[in-house]
């Protein structure tokens, strides 16, 4: 399941693979916001905020409109992947159910040759959004990374002639044979129906997110329900990506899987309360890092020898850790980030009013 628990992802750093994209938010046919998008963007915001070292492989065209912490590969003959997210006021949806997503333009895929084969990474994250990750790319990732986490949308998304996103069964995706070499597969509850969770959990750990209901973790011999954090949902875009960023941050810091999932739930809740790419308060981030470090010390002191099975069991103090992370959210808001993103977009309050039904 986890290929090498003796190798520390924190020591080696990580590899984040997925294209940046341009997101255009459209309410009832009217453009109400434009922002940086893509799983790599949301996860970078979390990893940078909580000080996790990583390298990024992402492709854009010369039309790329944003300045980011880590420069993507610019393809002169291509255009940046562009998505139009259509929201409709007459649909009372929850999560992504009220959104029709269309890929308008697509950048070049990320090939296996684009990855640094001379280096080894503690963890890898395959987080494609526009079909840019191919089976051979994921295969190269599992060769050079000790632990690989995959967002299922990178595997099962296909696109109609007009660019509308559709999903296919995981077995038909071309990636199914690689699952025994993957550590964690993350899916939303809407995406989870495109795989047999009971079958896949025998090959790798499966994490299914349920929005405001938290998440469930499934592994070969058991499953756990992980509590959510309350949030005033404004925009669900990127919540799953931020969850995955928080989840891997917890693993990198040495937390058992249930505690790492709490960190994921926390960042998911922080993201849905903002429009587009989240900006995290620096004091909140420091408080979270302090609590994570304290929790790590508690766990390692209680369990000097950690095996795979132990890491999937809720350890003593799990509920107290949830309460400590929840308390961190009440820090007064003072928006700042270690990484300043240059994001030309509509005024946040105007966008918020337009997005909300």
User: How many distinct helices?
Assistant: 12
CATH topology: UDP-N-acetylmuramoyl-L-alanine:D-glutamate ligase
Tell me the series of helices and strands, N- to C-terminal: HEEEHEEEEEEHEHEEEHHEEEHHHHHH
Span of the ends, CA to CA: 42 Å
The CATH architecture can be named as 3-Layer(aba) Sandwich
Q: Would you kindly provide a written description of the structure presented here, covering whatever features stand out?
A:
This protein has an 8-stranded mixed sheet with strand order 4-1-9-10-13-14-15-16, sandwiched between helices. A 4-stranded mixed sheet has the order 3-2-7-8. Helices cover 31% and strands 22% of the residues. With 357 residues, the protein is α/β, with parallel strands linked by helices. It is built from 12 helices and 16 strands. The protein has one domain: UDP-N-acetylmuramoyl-L-alanine:D-glutamate ligase (3-Layer(aba) Sandwich), CATH 3.40.1190.20.
